[in-house]
Amino acid sequence: MVKMWTARRWMWNRLATLKFAGAKVVDIPVPGGDEAVVRGVPLSTRFPRIGINEILVADRIPTDEHDLRAQRFYSVMERLFRIFGPNAPGLPSVDADRGAALDRAYTEAHRALFPAPEFPDEFRDPDLGLLATTSPYAHYVTATGPDTYEWDLRSLAEYDVHPGLVRLGVHVSFVQDGDRLRAVEIDSALGTVTPEDADWDRSVGLALCAATTHTSLVRHYNWVHLVPGAAFSIATRSALPAAHPLKRLLWPHVFRTQFSNWVTTVGQLSAGGDFEEIFSFTRESLLRLFNDTCRDFDAIVVDPQRDAEKRGIVGRGLDVPVLDNSLAHHDVMRAHAERYLRAYYPDDAALAADVDVQRWYAELDRLIPGGAGVLGDARTVESASRLIGSLIHLVAYQHEAYGTLLWNYQLWTQVEPIRVRTDGAPEPVDVYQRMVNADFGLNIRRSPMMQDFSYLALDGRGRAAFRAFLSDLLALQTRMEAEPQALYKVYPEMLEANMNG
Ligand SMILES: [Fe+2]
């Protein structure tokens, strides 16, 4: 069994490194290459073997996004999953020393392309209270009373897991101690435990496993790529002509979404794909999770400020560095949207009278489950700026924060297991190797946010606004470099213009 897996491992490592080495940063062209309408259709009509009916995806890949080589590569990969996939049954557990495990799984060929992950300071003596506000999972913390908080991931208990794994539904209770949180109780399939209990550390691991699983599957893939990200892109493609100023503002943040969502859906949600082979859920449960979390989607998560207010964590003297980091980027993106819109619309009436803008908003509102209204509308410049700033934040900042940023977290499975086994053993070597390659792939370079997009502008007004945005991002980068560095922080120079390869 091990010998057979060694051949599979060699081949899939080779594919991962070839893909990384061969990836080219895509230059974003001026819009107009394919002006035909793109419609939203149920995912299962585009991918008949993936039973997800609730989520709408584009009915076609526009010709200006086509990358036939990549599309063929993914079609072959989908077949390979079934006949020579990267996983094999009955393999031993990964080395208890994850440094050694990583040395083995992250080969010289990988390292020649991208440095190995770093170990977060907050993982040295893992304290769930600190991680609740100071890790990529900080977006779960919600107030329940004047000085009490929770992580509520109980809904994950409804989804079946692979044999031999612990179910993922977890509830963590926190109390506020000065400007920090202290975890006081964890309720899960492992029982209800407090920090004095022998099972506390294992329950902390299960809580982090639930958080990282939800972040990768729901927050990143469903709630950035598939649900609001695709709606943003389809509406922008279909409702705005190429020479419209709003199309030019949004274009760098939506171009290639249809192509990219097509290939990543094949790679991750196909039978034998990354999601079901890495994370805990069975295939049936995984597909149900995607359907359910599309139906339950609340667009407020796209606006980090309103989302934090709704979670009740603002203005309570709590140290929230991840939220501060997110809002610093959101401010710059909203200011950019507002500056740009004011350059083209002297007042709210002018914006409200633009039929293309109104059609764009109506399409976005129709495509987002539950509507876009909670994010803003297109009746006033201020409201539209808030909406657009949040959409840019979604595809650039949130895509990074819930995706690539996990590189330095997800592979330290002694702290944050990727699966929790009932027998207490670590995950098998093939699951760990697959996680390494999947996360390695997230680091493939995409078109950077910090570039001069003024070539997309229709005239001097747009050019000035694009340049002012770049200069604001540079100023934020400089400001952040003067502050203490941390792995949980996203920096403007890490941002990509959009979520697409
Ligand atoms: Fe992504």
UniProtKB/TrEMBL annotation:
GO biological process, one term: lipid oxidation
Residue ranges constituting the Lipoxygenase domain according to the UniProt record: 231-501
Top EC category: oxidoreductase
A GO molecular-function descriptor: metal ion binding
Domain of life: Bacteria
E.C. code: 1.13.11.33
UniProt xrefs under InterPro entries: LipOase, LipOase_C, LipOase_C_sf, LipOase_CS
Keywords assigned by UniProt, alphabetized: Metal-binding, Oxidoreductase
PANTHER family (UniProt xref): LIPOXYGENASE
Name of the featured protein: Arachidonate 15-lipoxygenase
Lineage of source species: Bacteria, Bacillati, Actinomycetota, Actinomycetes, Micrococcales
